Every structure is written in C-alpha cells, then in structure tokens.
C-alpha cells in the first residue's frame, strides 16, 4: 500500500470531521442549516480546506480498510451522542 500523500488528514481527524458532517447533514435535512454553508462551516472548525478534505477522502476511498476503520469510529461517535 502506498503511503498517504503529503497533507493527507490523519484518520482520527477524518473521523471527527465525518462525524460532524453527518450531524450537520442531519440538521440540514431537518431544515436547520443552509446547504451552502454546511461543509465549509465544519471544515473551518478544523482549519481544513475543502480541497484538502476532498483529496484526503479520495486517498481513503482508494484504501478501503482505512476508510472502514474511519467509518467504524464515526459510527461509534454517533452512537455515543
């Protein structure tokens, strides 16, 4: 397996971001948030650009084992809320 490209967000931070994006998506679906601001607001909390998130997500998408680990952590975090 190839090492992650420079600037790739670590798995733990990806878990936190995806958890927050999922919670934000739920709020959006309930009419609480504006769709345009959803992703930008969550990523700005972590000081991460959309481009960096997208390239990191692409990396993890090509590494299913790592992506599964991230989503397992996301589910654990969501279940604890």
SSE blueprint:
Layout: H1 11-29, H2 35-45, H3 50-61, H4 64-80
Helix pairs in contact: 1-2, 1-4
Brief account:
With 81 residues, the protein is mostly helical. It has helices spanning 11-29, 35-45, 50-61, 64-80.
Description:
- The protein has helices at residues 11-29, 35-45, 50-61, 64-80.
- By secondary structure, it is mostly helical.
- It has one domain.
- Helix 1 (11-29) packs antiparallel against helix 2 (35-45) and helix 1 packs across helix 4.
- The chain is globular, with a radius of gyration of 13 Å.
- It starts with 10 loop residues before the first helix and ends with a helix.
What are the key terms here?
globular, 0% strand, mainly alpha, single chain, 81 residues
Radius of gyration: 13 Å
Q: How many domains make up the coordinates?
A: 1
**Derived structural class:** mainly alpha
Please tally the helical runs, counting DSSP H or I stretches of 4 or more residues.
4
Number of strands: 0
Q: Please, what is the oligomeric state?
A: single chain
Biggest β-sheet strands, sense, barrel: none
Low-pLDDT segments, ≥5 res:
none
Strand content: under 5%
Could you tell me the mean pLDDT? 87
Instruction: Kindly state the percentage of residues in helix.
Output: over 70%
Shape: globular
